[in-house]
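Reopening this ticket.

The earlier resolution said the output was attached, but the attachment link was broken on my side. Pasting everything inline this time so it's all in one place.
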Amino acid sequence: MRDLGIRRAHVIGCSMGGYATLHFGLRYASMARSLTVIGAGYGSDPDKRAQFLRDTEVMARRFEELGTPEAITTYQIGPARVQLQNKDPRGFKELCEAFADHSPLGSANTLRGVQARRPTIYNLARGLARMSVPTHIISGDEDTQCLEPGVFIKRTCPAARLTVVAATGHAVNIEEPDLFNRITDEFLSLVDSGRWRPRDPRSHSPSPRARKA
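Inline output:
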């Protein structure tokens, strides 16, 4: 392959961006130096998939019919968003104000064309098992829609490490910025210094005790 002078990048994304980050590593591993995936997996629970798709369509119609400011009034206080409201009311208010400026048509199209059509985390199992890009999965322990998918990625991908942040919802990077910056800096430093290592295959043993040599 001809050298185009493209440097491998540290790729970081939250929520839908977390999904995109994961897919970047799966599809363009040669261009990724590392992946930091925050709050990815919403809509992956097979038992709740049909409800997720129905809710996504309802939300898309709210954007089209009500406009963004009114459409997001219920979304803002979802079960994985109220944590930010409680910790940082001012930051929560600023986030909501910024969100209110989004295009309602763009938001509706994103919900239908991206969120509703993307594969679940569990559908990515084969690719995740082969992926070797250093990957840091970060999830809030109260982000119930993304917590189990995060654990699944950790169990499936030998290149993944998982950090679960206590008493935290969906957007860990916004909710706990100091902690997020610290753990991300530590991860990137390991990768850049060559000290990062994939999971030891011996840790995959189904037995809680070491097998005899």
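Reporter confirms the inline version is readable. The longest strand covers residues 32-38. The mean pLDDT is 93.
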